[in-house]
């Protein structure tokens, strides 16, 4: 065998070992996640429902944040309008005398 052939074989062997190692890690991570979810009472079959629940919570959170933003803007608008109205009334009183 030539050096180039040996290097190719070694590189292929190492790549295969690394791929197998990553597959083992992926399987271990998936088992760990499944175990954690099961410990919270969430079975493998409940995954779609869990995803829908999280999507609902995200929509609810975003709507609450939007409502808070609108409330803040409304409060600022009322304060500014009241201030401008008071200044206008003061000007009318001063000019009226």
Can you offer a commentary on this structure?
It is built from two helices and no strands. By secondary structure, the chain is an all-alpha fold. The protein starts with a helix and ends with a helix.
Mean pLDDT: 88
Radius of gyration: 33 Å
**pLDDT under 50 segments (min length 5)?**
none
User: What's the helix count?
Assistant: 2
Helix and strand content put the structural class at: mainly alpha
| Percent of sequence in beta strands | under 5%
Helix content: over 70%
Q: What is the general shape?
A: elongated
Secondary-structure element order, N to C? HH
DSSP summary, beta strand count: 0
Sheet having the most strands: none
Span of the ends, CA to CA: 111 Å
Q: Can you give me a brief rundown of this structure?
A:
The chain is an all-alpha fold and 97 residues long. The protein contains two helices and no strands.
Q: Which key terms come to mind for this protein?
A:
single chain, 97 residues, mainly alpha, 2 helices, elongated
Topology:
Blueprint lengths: L2 H37 L7 H50 L1
């Amino acid at each position: 065998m030539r050096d180039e052939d040996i290097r190719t074989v070694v590189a292929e062997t190492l790549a295969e070992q690394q791929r197998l190692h990553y597959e083992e890690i992926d399987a271990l991570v998936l088992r760990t996640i499944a175990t954690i979810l099961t410990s919270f009472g969430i079975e493998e079959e409940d995954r779609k429902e869990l995803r829908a629940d999280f999507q609902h919570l995200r929509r609810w959170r975003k709507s609450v944040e939007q409502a808070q933003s609108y409330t803040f803007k409304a409060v600022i608008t009322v304060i500014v309008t009241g201030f401008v109205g008071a200044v206008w009334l003061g000007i009318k009183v001063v000019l009226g005398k």
